[in-house]
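Hey everyone, long-time lurker, first post.

I ran two proteins through the pipeline my lab uses and got sequence/structure pairs for each. Pasting them in order. The first:
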Amino acid sequence: MSDPHVLIDAKYEERVRIKHLSMEPTLQGAKAQFEFEKHRVEIALPTLPPEDKRAPGDPYAQAEADVWDKNGNIVDVYIYFLSVAALALQFELPAIAAKCRHINASLYTPEETKELDEKSDQLYFLARRAVDYFFDVARWKAGFGLIALDTRPDRATLRGGRLFNLSHGGAFYSPAVDRTVSAPKRHKLTVKEWNNIVATLTSGIYPPIWNEYLANAERRIDINDLRAGIIDLAIAAESVIRQFPGASMRARENKMSTIFANWTKFGFPPASHLPWFAKVDTLFKARNELMHRGDGNRVQISFCRDAASAVENLITALS
């Protein structure tokens, strides 16, 4: 091209909405930089806006002061967004576009636009994978499987359950005004946990596979997807059992029912006297009933929550 081009330093940046996570106030603005897929990536926690600019219920608020002590000091900050950036990028642009401080598509040729679109797409998916990695590590180090991306609707309503007469379109029943709504569970991120997360990201360490399946199961149970939750819990339990370094080779080759019947003989630490042991054994029976016979008699929320707690105890005992 005849128009002059220049090489500029650049970065890719966006905000992603998350759920079930808050933080100690001192963590506001904390950043984690790490190498990811040959890029330098940064994850940043949000900062509360000045008190005079806080708008309650603002759908674009990055964070919100949520708990105060008796002296009026903020002790808990709810996180709505994380910032993710790919750093140390370079782009060749038309000189006029490099000087312009605002986006102006007319400054690029069709070929340049196509190239920028492709690169932007690549960085978008890179950022999503980096955020997924961050969530995997955060769930692992925080011990809380519900931390994830959020897709909260802009106009949530508490009027769910209203019934309409199709003959005239009018409502004939509405739930009581004082209907109770359960607040979402969340985890308060501490400085120690954040430091552990940053150290893990910097080292490029991935959580053990059983932790990922346990977290998947907890998220599925939270939205009442109980069948999938049971299967993920069983995978998590079987993974940690079969990878236990003290188990004999015979244990790795046998069915789970045989392993549970010969637990200590196969080299596992004594646990048959503990309440959670029988619940893990029952979890495998429930998984087999579901997958082999389509029998969902055990698919109940109370069973799933008990099984999740039992698998957490199993992982603690074997990992």
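...and the second, right after it:
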Amino acid sequence: MTEQFAQHIVNNLLQPKENDVISIAGEIYNLSQNPLVELPLIEEIALNIRKKKAFPFLEISTENLKHRFFSEMPKEIFAHSPTFYNQWIDTISAFIEIGWKNISGEFSGENNLYFKQMQSLSEKIWQKIFEQNKKVIFLNFPTNELAEHLQIDYETLYQIYLAAVLTDHFKLKLKISEIHELLTKHSKFFLRSETDILNFSIKHDKLKTFSGKLFEQQPLIVLPTGFVEIPLIRSRLNGTFYAERAYYRNSSFANIKINFEDGFVRFISVKEESEQSETLKNAVLNSKDECFLVTGCNENISDYTGYFLYDRCIAENNSVVFYDNNFERIIFSKKNSKIVINE
């Protein structure tokens, strides 16, 4: 399965040209029970790149080294201009990031000043990559640590991930195109399920679709994929939404009821009250005006994992997304709900 996965990444998503230099960034999790979990995939991707007469460039870091960077380096190191990296970026044709932590800062567990400075340094590097329009693929590959945090068996999580990535992308693109066409022709909708109706209106100028970029010239790919991001007009949110799952910071919640009137949250209840659920409720009550509806289209994934970057792709799973005062996402999700025209 690893070989099939690597071939899919290289042949369908990366599509390297002869003499391209491809950076493959992975990590040895030497603080984990399975420290080499990424290496088989790194090897297969590198071999498949070389078969295309391109050149893989391996960047292997270690989990322990990152911890030591945070704890032992003088802070002036993080303010130093990344001159070498800027020159190095010029020589690389495309970038592959294997792990999930670089796009999942809420699970990082590192909240000290050094980590924030390191993040700032990384942002400058990524900014240069995107300015040069280099293709970047975040594989978002799961590890035992992620499985433990989500309280899910690793093999189960891995199989869900594989199924989501190895989907029929052509079929997925057609499904997304259908939804996109519906959304562009109308402005008023409601989200309907067996238990609730939520009325909403959309902002057409900021509508986004994500189908893996197989047929588009967009350089950034985040896997798994297959969803539509719909910007909402907050003041036109009316009705009740019974979410099966909610996601905020490090926590996942079950069975949440939230009611809106002209965009204001009139009430929110959580089945299992706790200190974390109070934090969730306060964040929603004080959330910013910006909000989205994310609707999943990937029929190869049907089970919740507790990790939103996977769960947002579940077919007919709709998620209402808000932002707290620190621009962290607050997410409410429900499967088997449908978008219906309300005009």
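Reply from user beta_strand_b:
Welcome! Quick read of the second one: Confidence is low (pLDDT under 50) at residues 108-115. The first helix runs from residue 2 to 14.
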